[in-house]
Specification:
CATH architecture of the largest domain: 3-Layer(aba) Sandwich
CATH topology of the largest domain: Rossmann fold
Shape: globular
Largest sheet: 7 strands, mixed
Strand content: 25-35%
CATH superfamily of the largest domain: Vaccinia Virus protein VP39
Number of strands: 11
Structural class: alpha/beta
Strand order of the largest sheet: 3-2-1-4-5-11-10
Distance between the termini: 37 Å
Helix content: 25-40%
CATH class of the largest domain: Alpha Beta
Length: 246
């Protein structure tokens, strides 16, 4: 079976190098604000789906929450496991599959970790798995790009270069057939150039409302940034949605 783009890219050393500057301060702000906004009590059960190396999971756990983080990347989970404790565990897991049913107070999906699949049905499976994992009345938090803003950014600057030591990343962005596509060429010394890609569905608020309604959850709030400010199509950097399981 042919591998999907995320099977190889997320386990690549180059992926972690390119994104090593991800803003932990910004992530901490988001987690602090969301935990306060949801009034989560100590030892509330939280599922961080598509957790990567676990930075959001670790921050959630420091709030006294019982956290399970899951990701498809073996390398990322191997790294995250060093931070495990009695109330923080990590597992390799495909987000399209149900991990537990009616178990979590909150399911979180952070930093545009949704919409990876070409076919809508596959993305709907991920939404269904998230809703299935939550308790009745539990919350599902999805942190996605503002696709309106994403379109504008691509029009302004589609190609750019990133240097990390002796390694150069040539990055080209485009919006094609409803997908935000990032083509990544890696130049690493005398080695042959390597190509990777990222592909994310250009989903909008109505898309999410429809998918999660089909899965059994209702949109109750949405925001446009990590300060939980008002969502504005033209200006907001994020689309942060809170759904409630019916």
């Amino acid at each position: 079976m042919n591998k999907e783009w995320f099977d190889t890219w997320f386990d690549s050393e180059y992926y972690h190098l390119l994104y090593k500057h991800r803003n932990d301060e910004e992530a901490q702000l988001f987690i602090d604000n969301m935990v306060a906004h949801l009034y989560l009590p100590t030892h509330a059960k939280v599922f961080d789906l598509a957790c990567g190396k676990g930075r959001h999971s670790i921050m959630l756990n420091k709030h006294g929450l019982d956290v399970i983080g899951a990701d498809l990347s073996d390398n990322s989970i191997s790294y995250a496991k060093q931070f495990e404790n009695d109330f923080l565990q990590f597992y390799v897991h495909d987000m399209r599959n149900v991990i537990r049913t009616n178990y979590f107070d909150v399911v979180m999906n952070c930093f545009t970790s949704f919409g990876y699949f070409k076919h809508r049905h596959q993305n709907e499976l991920a939404a269904t798995a998230m809703v299935s994992a939550a308790k009745k009345g539990g919350k599902i938090v999805v942190d996605f790009i503002n696709s309106f803003k994403g379109e504008a950014v691509i029009q302004e600057q589609s190609d750019f270069v990133v240097h990390e030591g002796s390694i150069t990343f040539l990055i080209r962005k485009k919006l094609e057939n409803g997908l935000f596509i990032k083509d990544i060429e890696v130049l690493d010394g005398n080695n042959a150039p390597q190509h990777f890609m990222e592909s994310v569905q250009a989903f909008y608020l109505d898309d999410f409302k429809a998918m999660f309604a089909k899965a059994g959850a209702t949109l109750v709030e949405y925001f446009g940034d990590y300060q939980l400010g008002k969502f504005e199509e033209a200006n907001s950097p994020r689309l942060i949605m809170i759904f409630e399981k019916n």
